[in-house]
């Protein structure tokens, strides 16, 4: 069985009865989040890219849980400098986490750490998504991305049970492009993420799910703190 908890923005926690992983923890900076970093119990932290709204709470959560941090090599190296136990990987690679396997896939976005005091931006590797095999299910987390044609190839090559797709627009693809992505990924269940956190990414998630249904696809809106089991 797979347990899924949505923590808001792009943060998703996937777990079996014994262990779990969390993707892109961003709780302190999200007014819509119902949990705090201290509430999170997990074994692994997966990071899709280095923007603050995806990595803000990676350090406190990883340290509190003695959890490994999985990310692209450059970002993993940066996190290791903070004293974290990291696994660096790259596009197309797969890591075996014992209770789950995570394959890194492309995302079209940017990735860098803004060092305000130095007025400098530090390169942090390419942005990514993940295909995760856990609890007998295959879960795709697209990360922050625009629409791109190879999504169809990914959908053709993988039988995806659940896909988490950004719909916010402005910084990522919006609902219209996300509908096309959902068709190409052809997941059994599509869940929208990366919306409503900031004014620039306000969207009608319920309407998006209705539009999925019109295309013969199942969708579901999860509010921050919601959990489901599959």
Automatic annotation (TrEMBL):
Please give the catalytic activity noted in the UniProt record.
3',5'-cyclic UMP + H2O = UMP + H(+); 3',5'-cyclic CMP + H2O = CMP + H(+)
Signal peptide range equals none
Q: Name one GO molecular function term.
A: hydrolase activity
Where do the Metallo-beta-lactamase domain residues begin and end?
Answer: 8-194
UniProt-listed InterPro entries: Metallo-B-lactamas (IPR001279), RibonucZ/Hydroxyglut_hydro (IPR036866), UPF0173 (IPR022877), UPF0173_UPF0282_UlaG_hydrolase (IPR050114)
Q: Does the keyword Hydrolase apply?
A: yes
| Superkingdom as given in the UniProt entry | Bacteria
Q: Which UniProt keywords apply?
A: Hydrolase
Pfam families noted in UniProt: Lactamase_B_3 (PF13483)
Check the record and name the SUPFAM superfamilies matching this protein. Metallo-hydrolase/oxidoreductase (SSF56281)
What is stated as this protein's family in its record? Belongs to the UPF0173 family.
UniProt function note: Counteracts the endogenous Pycsar antiviral defense system. Phosphodiesterase that enables metal-dependent hydrolysis of host cyclic nucleotide Pycsar defense signals such as cCMP and cUMP.
The UniProt entry, under NCBIfam families, shows: PRK00685.1
Provide the protein name: UPF0173 metal-dependent hydrolase DFQ00_104122
């Amino acid at each position: 069985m797979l347990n899924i908890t949505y923590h808001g923005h792009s943060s998703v926690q996937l777990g079996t009865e014994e262990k779990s992983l969390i993707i892109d923890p961003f709780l302190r900076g999200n007014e819509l989040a119902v949990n705090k970093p201290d509430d999170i119990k997990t074994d692994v932290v997966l990071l899709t890219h280095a923007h603050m709204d995806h990595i803000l709470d990676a350090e406190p959560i990883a340290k509190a849980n003695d959890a490994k941090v999985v990310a692209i090599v450059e970002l993993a190296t940066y996190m290791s400098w903070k004293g974290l136990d990291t696994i660096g990987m790259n596009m197309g690679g797969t890591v075996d986490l014992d209770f789950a396997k995570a394959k890194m896939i492309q995302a079209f976005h940017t990735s860098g750490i803004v060092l305000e005091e130095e007025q400098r931006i530090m390169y942090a590797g390419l942005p990514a998504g993940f295909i995760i095999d856990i609890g007998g299910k295959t879960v795709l987390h697209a990360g922050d991305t625009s629409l791109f044609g190879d999504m169809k190839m990914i959908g053709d090559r993988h039988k995806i049970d659940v896909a988490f797709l950004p719909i916010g627009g402005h910084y990522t693809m919006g609902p219209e492009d996300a509908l096309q992505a959902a068709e190409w990924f052809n997941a059994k269940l599509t869940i929208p993420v990366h919306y409503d956190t900031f004014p620039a990414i306000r969207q009608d998630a319920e309407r998006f799910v209705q539009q999925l249904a019109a295309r013969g696809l199942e969708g579901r809106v999860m509010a921050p703190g919601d959990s489901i089991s599959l």
